[in-house]
Design brief:
6-stranded mixed sheet, two-stranded antiparallel sheet, single chain, alpha+beta
Length: 319
């Protein structure tokens, strides 16, 4: 266990002090293994990609390599970025958090000041609460700007599945907003039940639970999925009801997965009324296009990309 809160855990730790320890006790899923192999590949190390299942390798090959990007009038070239840099965030000589920053650039502005651009590679940026303005990038931004004597930074996220950069709000380190962010980073880094006592160390549920890696071990998250009678929705109960529904849906998926494993191992899953049994059927593998390989062979192939009709997606976000 790390003796500190990792930058990627700050966003949930800000609200719930027990999330850090629970997340570190949890094993990692295949999606985390794929993500680690992809990050290693982007940093020039193909070893982990070689260890993936062929289907997983195919999937990872569809996540784009970060492109050169334009931020305001500046062009940042991917090959010029400083990559995979260990960054520590300190308050005086006390370590608050430490992690690996995927990419960073330093630019000298026309007035001679140095400005940092920091980039984090995500498989998809949808799952990151607050997007590029998240606390993880605030921690890296502060740490990296200090390290390279910059007066501010702009945070960015590269989404592998969408093959695009999203840039967040520039942070001038002398501004009140930067102070506010810094205080949030500090408070989150210290909001760790391992160092707190009594009520302060309690689990706190909310929308942030959906981003907590330790939720499957968390009694409070499980309690949310207890079935209650159907009630009329109003603005007092809507958020809690939705959270409960999301918790139930996740538990339902987990139960279905476990029943499938049981059936695969020879267990009998039988409906007593009809006598039908639940068994796997072999299906053909899904065909997919290796976009990266296609564009390498035919650079103008993106003229055939088609965008579907706009749909509607509900997510938790700032009003
Ligand atoms: S699931 Fe929610 S309440 Fe439980 S540890 Fe995670 S953030 Fe805290």
């Amino acid at each position: 266990m790390t003796p500190y809160v990792r930058p990627s855990a700050l966003g949930v730790a800000e609200f719930c002090p027990t999330s850090v320890a629970l997340s570190e006790q949890s094993g990692i899923g295949r999606s985390a293994v794929l993500s680690t192999a992809w990050h290693a590949k982007l940093a020039g190390n193909d070893t982990l990609i070689g260890e993936l299942h062929p289907e997983e390798r195919k999937e990872v090959s569809n996540w784009g390599t970060p492109s050169d990007t334009k931020v305001e009038d500046l062009t940042l070239r991917w090959e010029d970025a400083e990559k995979e840099l260990r960054v520590q965030v300190l308050e005086r000589d006390q370590l608050l958090t430490e992690g690996t920053l995927d990419a960073a650039w330093v630019v000298t502005l026309p007035d001679g000041r140095r400005w940092a651009f920091i980039g984090d590679n995500k498989r998809s940026s949808w799952g990151v609460p607050d997007g590029a303005d998240c606390l993880q990038l605030a921690a890296y931004g502060h740490g990296y700007a200090m390290l390279r004597s910059c007066v501010g930074y702009t945070p960015g996220l590269w989404s592998g599945t969408d093959s695009e950069w999203t840039w967040g709000t520039p942070v001038d380190l002398t501004s009140p907003d930067a102070l506010d962010l810094w205080l949030r980073v500090k408070r989150s880094a210290r909001n760790d039940a391992r160092n707190l006592a009594g009520d302060k160390a309690r689990a706190v549920t909310g929308e942030h639970c959906r981003h907590c890696w330790g939720r499957m071990r968390c009694p409070e998250w499980h309690a949310l999925s207890e079935v209650s009678e159907v009630v009329e929705i109003d603005s007092d109960n809507a958020a809690n009801l939705l959270l409960r529904a999301q918790s139930m849906a996740e538990h339902a998926e987990r139960i279905k997965d476990n029943v499938k494993v049981f059936a695969e191992r020879g267990g009998v899953v039988k409906d007593p009324a009809t006598g039908k049994v639940y068994l796997p059927t072999v299906t053909r593998g899904r065909e997919s296009l290796d976009k990266e390989a296609l564009l390498k062979a035919h650079p103008d192939a993106n003229q055939f990309w088609r965008a579907g009709k706009p749909g509607q997606m509900f997510t938790w976000r700032k009003p």
